[in-house]
Design brief:
Largest sheet: 3 strands, antiparallel
Order of helices and strands: EEEEEEHE
Shape: elongated
Distance between the termini: 24 Å
Helix content: under 10%
Number of helices: 1
Length: 76
């Protein structure tokens, strides 16, 4: 991933063939929690470009986001 600090807003851009996602945004299957509530399936949001506020440094951005190879539907 590439961090651009000279643009306004700053940007984090995935390398070719890869996508970015927030490090804590993970896949969760549909399930019933301990209180009996149905929790819907959660699919992480993925993108190739993230616009960052000026207050985020490159180090912080790399701690907040991870880069992954693009998975095609038939690869699941």
């Amino acid at each position: 991933m590439t961090y651009f600090n000279y643009t306004r807003p700053k940007m984090l851009v995935a390398d070719e063939g890869k996508v970015l996602r927030e490090i804590n945004d993970i896949y969760q299957e549909e399930h019933i929690d301990e209180n009996g509530n149905k929790i819907e399936e959660h699919i992480p949001y993925k993108t190739t470009t993230i616009f960052l506020p000026d207050s985020i440094t490159e180090e912080q951005a790399r701690e907040m986001y991870v880069e992954e190879h693009i998975q095609l539907e038939e690869e699941h």
